[in-house]
User: What shape does this take?
Amino acid sequence: MIIETFDKTSKPIITVKDFYGEKKKICDICIITFSKEILKYAIKEFKAEKYTEIINCNFNIPIYIFKYNKMKIGIYVSSLGSAISGMNVIEANCLIGSSKFIMFGSAGSLNEERTRDRFIIPTYAYRDEGMSYHYAKPSNYIKIDNYKKVVNIFKELNIPYVCGRVWTTDAIYREIRKNYENRKKDGCIAVDMELAGVQAVCKFHKFSLYNFLESGDVLTTDYSTYGLDSANHSLYKFHIGLEIAKRI
Assistant: This one.
């Protein structure tokens, strides 16, 4: 069973060095976005330049470097889903040396009243995916390590936010009513597709993850994708990410 997968003592057969060689040291901080529009903005407004690529057999993921506040910062558009986005973090660490990752994206709201006009700072993520069970002991939830630091930054910047549990699932078309109700009973206020796996990877490798989300679509009986595009590509998230970078 997948909950029996985690074994910290057994050596991996394949390592990231097999594909990319020895770890480089270019910058400490890397921004993970899921929006091609945000990346375009970073290239245009901050003169981000392509430094290297995460190599795949179907498509490569370019990693860009830009300067901000006397710092070099990496940025790339992550793949969707816990498994590949978690793997991208490991590869980015090897390729540019970053150990501090600022990740932001969109989420589906499970509680519109609490999330409306507020960013979501996750406290725990429900592990309804596979990646996290390879990197952390089995449990229903994984704690989001640096959420209190993110909260303090949002308070300092006077940005509206709400804290709460989120539900990470790789199966967007199996967000069924029963699971939805169970997660709401647990106190989950949103659903995403990456956080549990990425947090588990970061904890295992001693990376630091700083995460926040913006709700777009709302899970209701009359589901609509209205608001999702705006939440996906809002440039405000990028500027918040830069403010976090200044403070970590």
User: Anything to note?
Assistant: The chain has one domain: 2-247. Residues 110 and 181 are 9 Å apart (CA to CA). The domain at 2-247 is CATH 3.40.50.1580 (Rossmann fold). The mean pLDDT is 95.
